[in-house]
Write a structure and sequence with these properties.
five-stranded parallel β-sheet; Rossmann fold; alpha/beta; binds 1,3,4-trihydroxy-5-OXO-cyclohexanecarboxylic acid; single chain
């Protein structure tokens, strides 16, 4: 049994509060499943969130998810995570490439920030090659589809343990 696993189990057994991870999804991700399936696959956002939730559970983490098409709503969610959430996992979708207010909000968040993309933006149009969030992200996972969310939650478990 790995150390991670036993720490997660210990948290469950002792009923200690689980570190909270805020999972944020940006514009148009609510259309996953119907939107450009050749690029993003057939899974819906609910499918991805469910997998993230299962990994969080296994890793002894609590998870809260919010999707918004509006940058300000995501900015406010990051503000609300300050002092409350242990980490943020974010797929900011197109805001990744120009969302400077989201950059600034994440810069004011004290915990780890993991940037996730289903596709590999660096292998796509040149305007997707810049992430304005990358400078304030602890790490980025791209191009692995849903596995990216699972890996992000595993990374958080290691980083906040
Ligand atoms: C995305 C990549 C972005 O460039 C794009 O705007 C998205 C989704 C991804 O998950 O691959 O909406 O973040």
């Amino acid at each position: 049994m790995s150390e991670d696993r036993s720490e997660a189990e210990a948290r469950r057994d002792q009923n200690t509060p689980r570190p909270l991870v805020l999972l944020l999804s940006g514009p148009n991700l609510g259309l996953l499943g119907e939107r450009e399936p050749l690029i993003y696959g057939n899974d819906t956002l609910a499918d991805h969130v469910e997998r993230a939730r299962a990994t969080a559970e296994e890793q002894g983490l609590a998870i809260e998810h919010l999707q918004s098409d509006h940058e300000g709503v995501l900015v406010e969610a990051v503000h609300g995570a300050r002092g409350r959430a242990a980490a943020i996992v974010i797929n900011a979708a197109a805001l990744t490439h120009y969302g400077w207010s989201l950059h600034d909000a994440l810069a004011a968040f004290e915990g780890p920030v993991i940037e996730v993309h289903l596709s590999n933006p660096n292998a796509r149009e040149s305007w997707r090659h810049t992430s304005v969030l990358a400078p304030v992200a602890t790490g980025t996972i791209s191009g692995l589809g849903s596995l990216g969310y699972e890996l992000a939650l595993r990374a958080v478990a290691r980083l906040v343990a």
